[in-house]
Amino acid sequence: MISIIGLGYVGFTQLVGFALKGYDVVGIEKEQRVVSSIRDGRCTICDESLTKAFGTVQVRATSNCEEALDTDVTFICVGTPSRVDGAIDLTQIEDAVGQLGRLLRRKQSYHLVVIRSTVQPGTTENVVIPLLERSSGRSVGDQIGVCVVPEFLREGSLLEDFLNPDRIIVGENDTNAGDMVCGFCSDFKCPIVRTSYRTAEMIKYAGNAFLATKISFINEIGNICKRLGVDAYDVARSIGFDSRIGAKYLEAGIGFGGSCLPKDMRALIAQAADLGYDATLLRSVVEVNRSQPLCLVEILESRVGTLEGKRVAVLGLAFKAGTDDVRDSQAIPAIGRLLESGAHVSAYDPQAVANMRRIIGDDLVCYAGSAAEALEGADACLILTDWDEFKEMDEQFGGMKRRVILEGRKVLKDSIQREGICW
Do 6 and 102 lie in a common domain? Predict the structure, then answer.
């Protein structure tokens, strides 16, 4: 039997995914709102395939951590948000591990603890294991097993990524714990890499740092292409045929956001600094990404003049299509710069309005119920998220006062006259 502590994007996906595979699984979450929603049959994550699958399985959710005592393995899936200095905040990890350890004092049989949360290299050895041993009074490697199994889930395809991973990384310090994890993974058709704790932790950061670098690279190329009158998408498509490069993550645009890449880049840069190393390349990747939404607003100003008093429609608030997540969304700095410039902003997103309202309130932005409503009377439009419903838009632009359309992501059909940030 499996227990999962933390039912955010990672934990809830595991809850549903393991249930689909026939495991008896219980989810443990301290937020009663989340527990109540799951018990009432409501999916707590905005993800189409996950929502459909959730309706077909039987899962349990509770706020009582004691239920972990009756399970064989506990997956720790709590959040590790950024601190002010860029390093990760381990408060939720420490709370979960400490609470679980105190429960395990009462358990006589072996228990496996799997860290799925993203933690900086060295965290499992230096924080998790000492805390688990102190709180449980038991020894890791003998009565308790600990493994690090980083997740590589993408919002918008969470369940697909869980069920069909490219690889599974198992960080271990004893064979029994590693063998037990591999038993859970035996029916996954992908390579399983068994390594040390620290290496497993670093693999997650290295993978995300590479993806972020690839995105900022093609955006840098796109910015140069725009000034040369070259189509950045033709360039990206052509270099993507090179098997050494590959086509994925080569779409020039407004940059990356979300709960993983920005946070992990900050953490890796901060840890490098703590080790006395200046991660110059990684800092440049972050700087390019920071500048992209501001560059889009600058292009807008060059097309319409001063933004003071002008109405600008912003379509797309989520950091990507297929989710309601606005964490580190590039829409936030873009809207911020528009407001600083005196523009009146009307915004629309099919899923993310409620979440954006918590960050930028109704006193600053007018949130619309449709794209057409946001566009009515607008002097300009910025498209920041590649939602499917935006791809077929045409007549909705008819309500604009002045038809100036700029894309942060290439979304609209070719028949629509518009301009892109990198093309």
Answer: yes
Same domain? For 184 and 303 the reply is no
What is the Cα–Cα distance from 175 to 85, expressed in whole angstroms? 36
Q: Are strands 73-76 and 2-5 parallel, antiparallel or unpaired?
A: parallel
What is the token pair recorded at 87? 């390093």
Decide: pTM greater than 0.85. Answer: yes
**Which among 77, 260, 295, 422 is annotated as catalytic?**
260
Is 379 in contact with 312 (CB distance < 8 Å)?
yes
65 is catalytic: no
141: left (phi over 0), alpha (psi -120 to 50) or beta: left
Q: Could you give the number of structural domains in the chain?
A: 2
Instruction: Please check whether residue 385 is in contact with residue 331, taking contact to mean a CB–CB distance below 8 angstroms.
Output: yes
Tell me the per-residue pLDDT of 217-266, one tens digit each, with 9 for 90 and over.
999 999 999 999 999 999 999 999 999 999 999 999 999 999 999 999 99
State which of 165, 194, 223 marks the end of a domain.
194
| Domain span holding position 150 | 2-194
Q: Which of 194, 223, 245 is the last residue of a domain?
A: 194
Q: pLDDT digits over 262-308, tens only?
A: 999 999 999 999 999 999 999 999 999 999 999 999 999 999 999 99
- Distance (Å, rounded) from C-alpha 248 to C-alpha 235? 13
Assess if residue 135 is contained within a domain. yes
**Distance separating alpha carbons of residues 347 and 370, to the nearest angstrom:** 9
How far, in Å, CA of 118 to CA of 151, rounded?
Answer: 8
Asked whether residue 205 is assigned to any structural domain, the reply reads: no
Domain contains 332: yes
The domain that holds 56 is classified in CATH as 3.40.50.720
Tokens of 351: 């899923």
Unique residue bearing structure tokens 């449980």: 136
